[in-house]
Amino acid sequence: MCGIAGSINGQKLPNERIYPLMRHRGPDSKGAFYDSTKWGLLQFFHARLSIQDLSPLAHQPMQYGNLCLVFNGEIYNHLDFRKTLDFPFKTHSDTETILALFAKYGEAFLQDLNAFDGMFAFALYDKTAQKVYFARDRMGKKPLFFYQDSKQFAFVSELNTLQALVESPLEINFESLNFYLKSGFFYHDGTPYKNTFSLPNANYGILDLNTHSLEIKPYFDLEACYKAPKITDELEALQTCEALLKQSIKNRIESSDLEVGAFLSGGIDSSLIVALSSQITPKLRTFTVSFENSSFDESNLAEATAKRYNTAHTTLKISTNLKDDAPKILQNYGRPFFDSSAIPSYYVAKAAKEHLSVILNGDGADELFGGYRRYVGHLLVNKILPFGALANLLPNPNNKQSLYNYFYRLLQMANAYKRDLTEYYLRATTDIFVGFYNFATLSSFKENVESIFKSNLSPLSKMLLLDAKHLLLCDLLPKMDIATMAHSLEGRSPFLSKALVEFAPRLDDRLKVQGKTTKYLLRKLAEKHLNKAVCNAPKRGFEVPLAMWIDGELQALIFDTLAHTKIAQEFLEKNIIDSLCFKPHLYPKEKRAKMLWSLFALEVWYEKYKKGL
């Protein structure tokens, strides 16, 4: 994996100015390319993390004839395409395979990007055609951001690099920030800056240097996979799932010229990856985090799996100086970042990097196979929709742990479903300010959510598709990319292989959620390979004791930051911010923690923005 950047019609920049901003993404080599175009000077920059073909011949930018490519990612099946090519290969790198494919097929190659099994973002310059081509992988694992105004075009892997390439000062997009506070993420192509956007996943772009126009086209549609004929036979599904996951892990291990390890939590996703990886590579290195709060700590389950498969295991206890580290970690994202699990992700990636440069993770399993507890609630809500209005007539529950409270909340959710589908979805997922403060909803987000909810898909498929398009794409994948690449560590996600992404949506709903059992098929697979305690453990996710941190070690930092707010007051009255800080009894404990954290992340980003990124 690497860092890429470039600009068109900007002043010439030495590589020494750009490379330090993305060296963490690729410390092994640096490169730059310059050329005059119809629009002005074109410049490409690259920072390489050498993993596949470690030789200097595989350095970038890579050129062939009138083509020049900067590439970030890994294509695990790229050697399969070489069999059809008559090309003078000098390396066994996937970068050169992409060059060869474009040299043979031209623009038509972009329409078939779904044939790749991998993660990627790239920019390819064709001097003859006077065009630059961009692309991003189907699920959006690798980031790619653009800036475009009437004078200049620029692209980057990380937003923190952008201002160095753009001659005009970046301006704040308050509409995007408003939606960040509502949802906890930047939707689709949104960023905190005007004229700046993310290339959507599963899309490619064509920038015409003659007309300065950018055309963006999709090459893959996840929703179509959910509309394919369903797999209903449990044994067939189980055998296929195991075979596909094994092959995916094998591809991700064998396509690296360096040692590959794995993150290991107490959950079944990462534990399955470790179990199957141990059949492929001896003495796998595994890493987990431990919290002082036992309700969030899964390290004992992780250690049990590590012991069973004889891995070289490291448990990292989160007991560092959070008040110093939290702002630094958040600033790495180049935008307000709400997900507090970015903190343990950063620490465990740092620990892993001391031993290796490639790590496997369990990202994508929950969104594809139905792993979240709220899916059970969502299915119940769909059964009681006609009774949602009863929530307005019933008394508030006194005991939050009671059965009455559970059904009361289900009725509230059913009421929200009938009233506002976007509110329902956000309440069911990130649930930050929903119900306490009504931030405006982006019309594009509202249209997308309503379109999926009103489709002919099953209730479960609707929620899974929404989570893949929003939670996974806009939160979980960016979190892991930045957390790992901050330490020059490449994260690979076996559950997001081409085969599994196309297989999981075809599973019948009962193979995902049965009664109160989530991720049914993966749990059945886990029974073959994991201890019973791991198989039966309730899902925690990569959760952190955020409320405990905010009422403890981080309280002074967050309260002081918000007392001297520089940006949050643009969206919330000061008395509401003060109330969140000093009147905790007015809010549910965990919800208050999320509201305060989202505002703190906003302030941390703004402070870096004001310093010129």
Automatic annotation (TrEMBL):
Catalytic residues in the record: 2 (for gatase activity)
A molecular-function term among this protein's GO annotations: ATP binding
Single biological process term from Gene Ontology: asparagine biosynthetic process
Entry binding sites for ATP: 289
Catalytic activity: L-aspartate + L-glutamine + ATP + H2O = L-asparagine + L-glutamate + AMP + diphosphate + H(+)
Keywords, comma-separated and alphabetical: Amino-acid biosynthesis, Asparagine biosynthesis, ATP-binding, Glutamine amidotransferase, Nucleotide-binding
Gene3D superfamilies: Glutamine Phosphoribosylpyrophosphate, subunit 1, domain 1 (3.60.20.10), HUPs (3.40.50.620)
The keyword Nucleotide-binding appears for this protein: yes
Similarity comment: Belongs to the asparagine synthetase family.
Alphabetical list of InterPro entries matching this protein: Asn_synth_AEB, Asn_synthase, ASN_synthetase/amidase, AsnB_N, GATase_2_dom, Ntn_hydrolases_N, Rossmann-like_a/b/a_fold
EC number: 6.3.5.4
Protein known as: asparagine synthase (glutamine-hydrolyzing)
